Amino acid sequence: MLNALEVFTTVVVGVMVGVEFSVAFVINRILDALPGDSGQLGRAHGGRMLGAVMPVWYIASLVLVVVWAIAGWHDHGTGLVVTAGALLILSVIMSLVLLVPINNRGKTWTPENRPEDWKEQMNRWDRYHYVRVAVIIAAFALLVAALA
Q: What are the TM regions of this chain, as residue ranges (predicted)?
């Protein structure tokens, strides 16, 4: 049963990492290359859609990692799992403090109501997101290592 939990948790976190990596290095680059206001409108829509899904995914991933750490407390990879959990906690804190406030503003913007500095705010969100992606990749790598 513990093996199934370990694999399931690793897959859930890994898919989350893939989505966030794709946002950072694929989706946002595509949106930024669109003509006119299309990119900003796409980012606003993505902010609404992913803003509803990702918090649940982050918290579920963290809960799964905590359950894994508790269930496998005496296993050899528990330190790696606990460290991965700490990184996921860091990613949630980063999200709440740095990324969510920008996202909450950006998801309501239209070409008619966006602030003059909207591109700077999106660039700031991107920079914070790159760091968050690095943090969750590290967490994922630790979970994979704990499987070995």
A: 6-28, 49-71, 77-100, 129-147
Number of CB atoms found within 10 A of residue 131's CB: 13
| Alpha-carbon distance values, 62 to 25, 44, 66, 84, 91 (Å) | 24, 27, 6, 9, 10
Query: Can you tell me the distance from the alpha carbon of 30 to that of 105, in angstroms, rounded to the nearest whole number?
Result: 21
How many other CB atoms are there within 10 angstroms of residue 95's CB atom? 18
Tokens describing residue 65:
């990692």
pLDDT string in tens for the chain (148-residue length): 889 999 999 999 999 999 999 999 999 999 999 999 999 999 999 999 999 999 999 999 999 999 999 999 988 899 999 999 999 999 999 999 999 999 999 999 999 999 999 999 999 999 999 999 999 999 999 999 999 8
CA 109 to chain centre: 22
The whole-angstrom separation of Cα 81 and Cα 133 is: 18
pTM for this entry: 0.94
